[in-house]
Specification:
Blueprint: E1 6-10, H1 11-25, H2 30-52, E2 73-78, E3 81-88, E4 91-96, E5 99-100, H3 103-114, H4 118-130, H5 134-148, E6 162-166, H6 167-180
Antiparallel strand pairs: 1-6, 2-3, 3-4, 4-5
Length: 184
């Protein structure tokens, strides 16, 4: 049974939320950040799935089944992943499989995954993100995630498994980083 400051959850929603918070700290608006966070988690899952043999290795990303909608395409780096993004009428949005990621879908997914714990987890992760200067966070976001992500068994046993996300650990990381930051 987890303690009050732990949430039992699998890694994908944790990485989605963390990457979204990192993107916000790097200057993207909330909706763009949510889509970038989802893309980071999906790209990470695909990579791990290929390593485990769940997905066949791809030499290159397949071409989308339909031509991309109008809008300027760009590449955005978040948590060490390069995400394809498109400028839409609503703003920047990540693109997966030729489709623009919808921020409302990401919000609903995070609400389902975290339930009543979402606000507590978001608050702890935001404190950690704010404990870093943006340039430092851009460099270290994924290594920070590796320090606090839920522990799951290695290999196939860990695929989709849940583990404990320790909010006290996240808060300690934020405090340590804050104490290491020189006063200006």
């Amino acid at each position: 049974m987890p303690h009050r400051n732990a949430v039992v959850i699998n890694r994908a929603p944790v990485l989605t939320l963390w990457a979204a918070i990192v993107a916000e700290r790097l200057g993207f608006d909330e909706d763009a950040s949510l889509t970038l966070g989802r893309a980071v988690a999906v790209l990470n899952a695909r990579s791990k799935g290929r390593k485990l043999g769940i997905f066949k290795p791809k030499e290159k990303e397949p071409a989308p089944s339909r031509p991309p909608a109008p809008g300027k395409m760009s590449h955005v780096e978040v948590c060490g992943r390069t995400v394809l993004a498109r400028q839409t009428e609503q703003g920047l949005r990540a693109v997966l499989g030729g489709k623009v990621v919808r921020p409302d879908g990401v919000r609903q997914s995070l609400n389902r995954a975290f339930g009543e714990d979402l606000d507590r987890v978001r608050s702890a992760l935001r404190k950690l993100a704010r404990s870093c200067e943006p340039a430092e966070l851009k460099r270290e976001a994924y290594s920070l995630y590796e320090r606090f992500r839920p522990a799951v068994p290695a290999g196939m046993k860990g695929w989709g498994a849940k583990g404990e996300l320790d909010l006290n650990l996240i808060r300690r990381l934020a405090r340590r980083r804050h104490l290491q930051t020189p006063m200006r």
